[in-house]
Amino acid sequence: MPANSASAPLSAPDVAFPPGLFAAVVILAAVSPGVLMMAPAVATQLHSQWQLSTLQIGHLFSCELGGMSAATLPAWWWSGRINWRKIALLAGVVFILGNLLSALTLRTDLLMICRFIASLAGGTLMILSITCAAAAANTGRIYAYWVLGQLLLGTVGLLALPPLFSHFGLAVVYLLLAFLMLCSLPLLRYLPAGFHPPPVSAAAQIAPSRRRKLCAILAVLLFYVSLSAVWTFIGEIAVRASLSALQSGDILAVATVVGIIGAVGAAMMAARFRPGTLLWVGYVLLVLAIMLLVRHPMAIRFVLAAIIFKFTWTFLAPFTMAHVAALDNDGKLMNNINLVIGGGMALGPSLGATLLTSFGGMDALLTGALASAVLSGLLLVDFN
């Protein structure tokens, strides 16, 4: 189905995207970044059980994110040469072994090595899930479920891990991830042997130019820079809105639930409305949410902004990725998106901190995030 068609029958994704492949894409995408999705609970346990400093914990999670992103580099070689099912099986086994070793180690330096190896394998599986989803007839809908799976596992983990940590310690999170991946291995047989682009009309068969692909990559990078910059420092904005830590935590918890609703809404609307329309609605809401945070918002304005922001994040991400997938005629563009997302999530907090401390405070940070969001949307005009 062309990316700009008005709608698609509900059965269309099922024809081009079998249930087994759908389950593999969603579950692999949820399990692979499991530690990052449950980072607050894991970070708290690392501090209380291992007495790690904030800096050490930051380095450990940077290692997780770095491993996920670094998986893009070898994928440039194997994506067109080796059967994807074999790569997925190897990555799944390495992921399991990496998590088992993480559960057994008692040294921080060894844990960091184990986490990088497990994350490298997880990133490989993430690349496969992203690229397979790009071949669906309705990519926006598939990516919505892709996001939803991650949110649900993260939410369940944040609720279940604290009591489990009190009985079994930090090792339980790594053992659970190894177990979930072991249960997911039978789904690997549904993955394709290689890249298969979705069926397109004759008018859409012209290969996209390099410039259009670069615009798409930059749009995704700026999108995630904007999101991560704001979300990293939203707690400080809450303080400026005269909210206590408890009140802020409650508001952000509600916003996270609204984020799940955003992903569900994206999945439901993807087959009923023009993808371009949904994309622009999302960008308008994202700009609105950031603007509501500018100039020391009062409590009510902060609550509204946090809820709109988290809803927009999970609502807009599937359609942004779907529009990029429409330009991918060989599977390599979506492979690069894995690195771009990781880079954006890493750059956002760093650039945000620089703007916050050296270039005018919170308003400078929010202005930078707003400019990134607007430019990201404008870059998508090139192929929308």
Question: What would your notes on this structure say?
Answer:
This protein is mainly α and 384 residues long. The protein has two domains: 13-190, MFS general substrate transporter like domains (Growth Hormone, Chain: A), CATH 1.20.1250; 208-380, MFS general substrate transporter like domains (Growth Hormone, Chain: A, Up-down Bundle), CATH 1.20.1250. The protein contains 17 helices and no strands. It has helices at residues 12-16, 19-31, 34-37, 39-50, 54-70, 72-78, 84-104, 108-133, 139-168, 171-184, 210-232, 234-240, 245-269, 275-292, 299-325, 332-358, 362-380. Helix 4 packs parallel to helix 9 and helix 16 (332-358) packs antiparallel against helix 17 (362-380). The longest helix is centred in the middle third of the chain and has 30 residues, at 139-168. The chain starts with 11 loop residues before the first helix and ends with a helix.
Brief rundown of the structure:
The chain is 77% helix and 0% strand. It is an all-alpha fold.
Cα distance spanning the termini: 14 Å
Assembly classification: single chain
Number of discrete domains: 2
Spatial extent as radius of gyration? 20 Å
The CATH homologous superfamily name of the largest domain equals MFS general substrate transporter like domains
